[in-house]
Design goal:
Largest interface: A-C, 86 and 82 residues
CATH superfamily of the largest domain in chain C: Cytochrome c-like domain
Oligomer: heterotrimer
CATH architecture of the largest domain in chain C: Orthogonal Bundle
Order of helices and strands of chain C: HEEHEEHHH
Structural class of chain B: mainly alpha
Number of helices of chain C: 5
Strand order of the largest sheet of chain C: 1-2
Radius of gyration of chain B: 17 Å
Shape of chain C: elongated
Distance between the termini of chain C: 63 Å
Largest sheet of chain B: none
CATH class of the largest domain in chain C: Mainly Alpha
Helix content of chain B: over 70%
Order of helices and strands of chain B: HHH
Strand content of chain B: under 5%
Number of domains of chain B: 1
Chains: A mainly alpha (466), B mainly alpha (99), C alpha+beta (216)
Distance between the termini of chain B: 58 Å
Shape of chain B: elongated
Radius of gyration of chain C: 25 Å
Chain lengths: 466, 99, 216
């Protein structure tokens, strides 16, 4: 085992912990909707919401870093260069996250001064973390970039996957710089903010998880490198080909010119088509490799990712992406429904697969399939689908009564927030959120427990795999 | 767009893509397991998807450009599963030959 | 089916589809083309959304009346900039207006407004959208009588400074300890935001002035 893989296990531990924190504050945020005066002026909705969405970004980022630290030495057959620096920055990363969380919980907000932006709260969604902490994240990612590039140089080896990874480091660092400005012009602020949220969290990360999944497929399913790399290139081409100008669907209503209505609508309406191709690919792969997989949970999570990505990003996105629809659906719980489903399908499923790969490798069993993983799998998926259905109901109600009929005034907003359809959707979200949290507990329990060595299965698989 | 037409259009759009996805899934599982019955069920999904697309084009107040786009992407939903499947078979058989 | 990929890559119009290099080249060229297009669109969009650009009025628009009316040519609601209507009865210079905007935006960021509210529909969806809040009839119908203030802006300042004293419904706004200066800057900011041309978002918004009601 490479030293860098031990670092990656630490990153996974931190990621899974923050995944739990995210769920905790997600549940809390859901509770405010049904008990609005809860914790009033003690811990307001905004703080809970910040902790929910910021931990989302951080735990996924940590899981990605962990996955790359896991696979990079394996891919290049060389220990990661600068590993001690990487180990040190892991603790820096954890310390930064902890301090920011405490400041959010205790201090929450500040005066309208630059001091607040530097040390308390930047108040820009997803990147509320104060500037000093954002600098910390830049340092962590800078060291990460150095590790990747230096290892490639030292190993004198580049594979197709590492080329994509190295090129993806450029936007990973460059676009994150968007976490700092405080433009007084809201239109311009949001213009660049969407580069952060769409280009960084969506496009750049999508390429990153594409690289990770390529390495997982070679590792878990034994797919040949040529096939995996061909698919990675196709995926990058489609993701960036539709995604870069798909940015336009965020530029409908922020003051930007009318041509974004056509551009954004066109490119994002095409987005489900490549996702459909991915579904076909996942089924093909399932057939090709089912007998040879040595890690059933990872295999199931990877396959699920393709389907839920199609539904979450494809179906849910297409429903509301054309400007004439989006005019009413934008900024309601409908958006929330799409956001939850798309993030879960695009990233969370894949990241959980990566966790299971690590579990198998560290425990040393030939075959990982001891039934209990199905609890986490089932509860998380049922919880997520239930939540997004509830949010969809709430969102459609808001868009219909509050927007299309009510016209978006304060009165329209408050009235629709007491509409029984809206409330039942919000309640459903809370209840399925609890199911999701139970799934998280089952997942963590399963990841931590010692796997039973499955003699029959292991023999069967070993025979097929060699 | 009236409030009712708005909700109906959005739901039709979602149902259209969902049915298209149903075709892709059933088609590929049917091919994988060699079960023509699944492929036929997939074809039913495709017909349903095309029906939703037709309903969007005929009955919703979307602008003409968007309706054309819906028509084009309906063709995409019909074409992609068999095309991708064939491509994958070629890719993998090529892979074996080269390995 | 078996004719493909055995032997060296075939020469052809599209190259060999099973050759990874073909797709690598495709990925790189597609990305570069899209980035170039995006760069041009960004330059153009920034000129439109910079204050004083086509869609985003200069900050001293807060000296004027702002309406929101249906435009039959563009088929959507658009902001209408009217005659003089100085905020708090004081006309401000361009520089003073810019300073107010900077302060107002700092208030909005430091109090994490967008983690409950939304601007242009972006934010946290827990509290009302603020895009056209300056034009919301609730100020005249609810808060002016409730606060006993004679003008919309005075009622807004009073509410922003003591939201906990004017509960409206079960989701209440917490007291975020705004000073009067901060509250006034925030009101100025909200007035400016309402003048931005957002391609008709939000639609069907009923403004404060009933005479601006839509034509049949």
């Amino acid at each position: 085992m490479y030293r860098s893989q031990r670092l990656s296990l630490r990153y996974y531990t931190a990621a899974i912990t923050l995944f739990g924190v995210m769920i905790l504050f997600g549940l809390l945020s859901a509770l405010y909707y049904v008990f609005p005066s809860m914790l009033f002026e003690v811990l307001n909705f905004s703080t809970s919401k910040i902790l929910h969405i910021d931990t989302l970004v951080i735990w996924l980022l940590m899981a990605f870093l962990g996955a790359v630290y896991w696979y990079l030495p394996q891919e290049l057959e060389h220990e990661v260069v600068g590993i001690r620096l990487a180990e040190a920055t892991f603790w820096v990363f954890c310390a930064v996250v902890a301090v920011v969380a405490v400041v959010f919980l205790v201090v929450q907000i500040g005066d309208s001064t630059a001091f607040t932006l530097w040390f308390i709260n930047q108040g820009r969604k997803y990147v509320e973390a104060p500037r000093w902490a954002s600098i910390g994240v830049v340092v962590v990612m800078g060291v990460f970039a150095y590790n990747v590039v230096a290892t490639c140089v030292k190993a004198r080896r580049m594979t197709g996957v590492t080329w994509v990874l190295v090129l993806d480091l450029i936007p990973l660092l460059a676009v994150y710089m968007d976490a700092f400005p405080a433009d007084e012009n809201m239109s311009r602020d949001l213009y660049w903010w969407w580069w952060l949220v769409h280009m960084w969290v969506e496009s750049t990360w999508e390429v990153l998880i594409g690289c990770i999944m390529a390495m997982v497929l070679m590792d878990v399913m034994g797919t040949s490198r040529r096939i995996v790399e061909t698919w990675l290139y196709i995926e990058v081409m489609l993701v960036l080909g539709a995604g870069i100008l798909g940015l336009g669907h965020h530029y409908f209503w922020i003051g930007t010119p009318e041509y974004w209505l056509s551009i954004g609508g066109f490119f994002s309406a095409l987005e489900p088509l490549p996702l459909l191709g991915m579904v076909v690919h996942a089924v093909y792969d399932a057939g090709e490799h089912r007998l040879r997989t040595v890690n059933r949970p990872a295999f199931f999570w990877i396959t699920t990712e393709a389907f839920l990505n199609f539904i979450g990003a494809g179906v849910w996105g297409f429903m509301m992406t054309l400007p004439q629809i989006n005019l009413f659906s934008h900024g309601t719980q409908w958006t929330v429904s799409h956001g939850h489903f798309a993030f879960y399908g695009a990233y969370v499923c894949g990241v959980i697969a990566v966790f299971y790969v690590a579990k198998q490798k560290t425990s040393g069993v030939a075959c990982l399939d001891d039934r209990f993983w199905k609890w986490g799998y089932g509860l998380l998926n049922i919880g997520m689908v239930g939540m997004v259905m509830g949010l969809l109901l709430a969102g459609i109600t808001q868009a219909f009564y509050g927007r299309a009929i009510g016209g978006s005034t304060l009165m329209a907003f408050t009235q629709v927030s007491e509409n029984p359809w809206f409330l039942s959707g919000i309640w459903a979200r809370l209840l399925f959120g609890i199911v999701f949290a139970a799934g998280y507990v089952a997942l963590v329990y399963d990841l931590l427990r010692k796997p039973r060595s499955n003699a029959v299965g292991a023999g069967e698989i070993a025979g097929a795999a060699t | 767009m009236t409030p009712t037409a708005f909700v109906a259009t959005a739901l039709l759009m979602g149902a259209f893509v969902l049915a298209g996805g149903g075709y892709g899934s059933l088609y590929s599982v049917g091919r994988l397991q060699g079960r023509p019955r699944l492929i036929r069920m997939g074809a039913v999904c495709l017909v349903v998807a095309l029906g939703f697309a037709a309903a969007i084009v005929v009955a919703t107040p979307l602008a003409v450009g968007w309706k054309i786009l819906i028509g084009v992407s309906a063709a995409g939903y019909a074409a992609i599963p068999p095309l991708v499947w064939r491509y994958l078979e070629q890719l993998h058989s090529g892979g074996r030959a080269m390995r | 089916m078996d004719t493909i990929s055995v032997g060296p890559p075939r020469a052809g119009v599209g190259g060999d589809l099973a050759d990874p290099r073909f797709w690598a080249a495709g990925a790189i060229s597609t990305t570069i083309v899209m980035l170039i297009v995006l760069a041009f669109l960004t330059v153009d969009s920034l000129s439109v959304i910079t204050a004083g650009g086509r869609n985003v009025p200069a900050y001293d628009v807060i000296n004027r009346h702002i309406g929101y009316e249906f435009n039959w040519a563009r088929h959507r609601d658009v902001p209408v900039i009217g005659g003089l209507e100085p905020l708090f009865g004081q006309t401000v210079t361009e520089a003073e207006a810019a300073a107010l905007m900077e302060k107002g935006k700092l208030v909005i960021q430091s109090r994490a407004c967008m983690d409950c509210h939304t601007f242009f529909g972006n934010g946290a969806y827990y509290a009302p959208d603020l895009t056209k809040s300056w034009l919301d009839p609730a100020w005249e119908n609810i808060w002016m009588p409730m606060t006993g203030k004679a003008t919309r802006e005075a009622a807004m300042v009073e509410f922003l400074m003591h939201p906990d004293q004017y509960p409206t419904w079960n989701r209440r706004m917490p007291n975020l300890h705004l000073t009067e200066e901060e509250a006034r800057a925030t009101v100025a900011y909200l007035k400016w935001v309402s003048s931005v041309d957002t391609n008709g978002f939000p639609a069907n918004f009923r403004t404060t002035k009933p005479d601006h009601a839509k034509q049949p």
